[in-house]
Prior knowledge:
alpha+beta, Arc Repressor Mutant, subunit A, 4 helices, about 15% strand, globular
Amino acid sequence: MPKLTDMQAILLSTASQRDDGSLLPPPETIGAVTPRIRKAVEMLIKRALAAEIEVTATDRAWRSEGDQHWGVTITDAGGAAIGIEPMGAVEDKAILEAVNDAPAATNTRPYHAA
Length: 114
């Protein structure tokens, strides 16, 4: 598990609880976007624990270029860094467990040596 600062852990944890996975806006407990929060988000992006995505809501914007607004969302790696398994992995794991628990198929056709 990657080493995270308290700020990074809070941002990822908050994002993991949001439907859209957005790191922004930051939780009220740490306040508005400040240089300290920006630095934490930059490091999360650099380490692929978060990723930039285009957003329409300006309160979720990380940066803007003209009329485009970019937000930041948690990645599967970011979830794993705080101990959250990605949804796809949970579904895949359930399928594998079901397959592994199924009785072995038996071959009902006789074997004929050539």
